[in-house]
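Handoff note, outgoing to incoming analyst
You'll be picking up this chain. Sequence as last confirmed:
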Amino acid sequence: MRFLKKLIVALAFAPTLVLANEGGFPLDHAPDRTEVAALQNGAKLFVNYCLNCHAASAMRYNRLRDLGLTEDQIKGNLLFAGDKVGDLMKVSLSAKDAKEWFGVAPPDLSVIARAKASEAGTGGDWIYTYLRSYYRDNSRPTGWNNAVFPNVGMPHVLWELQGEKRGAEISEVKEVKDASGKVTGFSETTATFDADGNRSEETKSLEGEHHHTGTHIKLMPVVGKQKLSALEYDTEVADLVAYLEWMAEPAQTKRKALAVWVLLFLSLFAFLAWRLNASYWKEVK
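Most recent structure output, in case you need it:
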């Protein structure tokens, strides 16, 4: 019995231990932007910056009427030439061309905000951090890399808004082993990317016996010309994330509002059942 209790405790902490071993870039919490104006702006950003390569084949343009947009506004501001209000949000880019240009076909974004959820945070947290974590890396085909998604094939499509010059510092601590495989020390390799993406590297030995192995990424501030300030850019990304979360479940607002009435309804009947049970057992006694 004592062994069984220990096993249950160990299994309970297993997910935490796995997450700690995996490490990864920490996710920022995505701001709660549920107001209609924010969702409308997010829809505009999605159409202008994402829908060129990424489809949302589970969503139709006319569903945007749920965000307070009229058909005329959808036609005038969000539709490409030849598209109709009732059409699905698809792209003309073929999967073959996409794989040739980017190495992999861009994923459909219909439910990406739900697909990226994990123990580290919600799908919105992942996307919010991802779109704010690009840095220049000239060794990559696109000239960009990402702290959340290392060696990502997608270029920084929002660079005009955030700015095109940003560096990063990546430090990796590793064990140093001899020929027999015995750990003899630790070393730290630091790769520095300047604002233009030029890479330099330095390796040094670490003193002491105990060091945490793993990789740490430090993003530098954006420098040079940029269309938006850091705060303004974060707000735009938050609006885009809010739209992606809404698109993954357009009925979520109604669902949450209905949930309150459902809980009140169940509470009422739970109270009646409790009183009926008390009355029944009173007669039995």
